[in-house]
Fold:
Amino acid sequence: MTDDSRADAYAGTHPYPHDSTALVAWLTTLVRNGESGSLADLRRARSRTNTHIRAGWYGGDDHRDLFERIAFLFALYHQGRSVPAYGFGSLGAAAARIGDGTGRGPDNPGAGRLVDRLVVSRHVPWRHLQHTIVRLRSCEQPPPSWTGLVEDLILWNDRKARVPYRWAVDFHAPPERRRIPDGTSRNKQKDTTT
Structure:
């Protein structure tokens, strides 16, 4: 058996899997190490650079393009930043943080329209995702969990996963039920017996 036939047999039974955690670890290292050139490459969506290709390798055989696009969104959010933001929650929960003095999340008409456009799309809504990330950055709000975003977008067309529905539910959740970065709920009541 030649090396090529072994590689073909392995690829047929064990396709190269995706690794969203490794992608985010690599991207955060770029921010932490101040590799602004690599991050600038990732922000150039129209041209495929070596940095795009490297980001794509974390996506395995099936999700290379998706991983390159997530790297683009990550680089947009981190433009000019020296500390990486890992984010938390779903994109719907993150969109609930968009807003200004007139209101945030469902109380902000712009955020509401943005989420409406995201959740009705049959295909991954890349343009609206980009707009959401840019709005989060401009509002100085943390992004969604980058690894969670990758996994959600991989399952976008899976009807059982219901990703758009979960995002809508997270967006419209009452403020006291939303999750905070440590994973606890904001609606914890103080024990009055002590």
Observations:
- The chain has two domains: 17-77, 91-176.
- The two ends are 73 Å apart (CA to CA).
- The first strand starts at residue 99 and ends at 100.
